[in-house]
């Protein structure tokens, strides 16, 4: 029987290790060793310093998701800022399944679909968003939701993405 833990459980152990005056790298390494010794499958865990650890910066994935979420809520969002964050996310998603699972549990799919809806007329943003969704979904199809219907033909024909009920 395979044992699994949540990202939050892993982060709590890392946090406890940091309180024992370990460096972030030592704290993560020790947490991995502890869980592996117990037979825990860590394939769904991002083994990086996360945002709930006091005094440590957010990891790149969580930070980029937060930035992108803020950008799409402001009317002054610049195209290059959105595309930059989408590229960062795509790179993070390509690191491992754990990164994709973590992103999915932090609303990445919904944010990306929102971007497709909001910027369907902007070829560059729509293309970057589609490439990012592909990276997120590749090997991780559980995030796909039937309530979203997206039809994109980015070669210049029609570009539409609508939310259906």
UniProtKB/TrEMBL annotation:
Highest taxon in the source lineage: Eukaryota
Name under which the protein is recorded: Uncharacterized protein
């Amino acid at each position: 029987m395979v044992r699994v833990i949540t990202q939050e459980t892993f982060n709590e152990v890392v946090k406890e290790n940091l309180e024992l005056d370990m460096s972030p790298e030592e704290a993560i390494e020790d947490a991995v060793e502890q869980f592996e010794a117990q037979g825990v499958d860590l394939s769904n865990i991002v083994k990086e310093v996360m945002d709930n650890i006091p005094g440590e910066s957010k990891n790149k994935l969580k930070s980029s998701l937060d930035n992108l979420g803020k950008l799409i809520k402001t009317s002054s969002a610049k195209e290059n800022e959105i595309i930059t964050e989408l590229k960062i996310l795509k790179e993070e998603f390509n690191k491992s399944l754990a990164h994709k699972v973590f992103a999915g549990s932090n609303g990445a799919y919904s944010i990306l679909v929102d971007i497709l809806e909001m910027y369907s007329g902007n070829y560059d943003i729509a293309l970057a968003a589609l490439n990012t969704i592909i990276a997120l979904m590749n090997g991780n199809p559980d995030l796909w939701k039937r309530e979203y219907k997206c039809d994109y033909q980015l070669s210049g024909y029609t570009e539409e993405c609508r939310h259906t009920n």
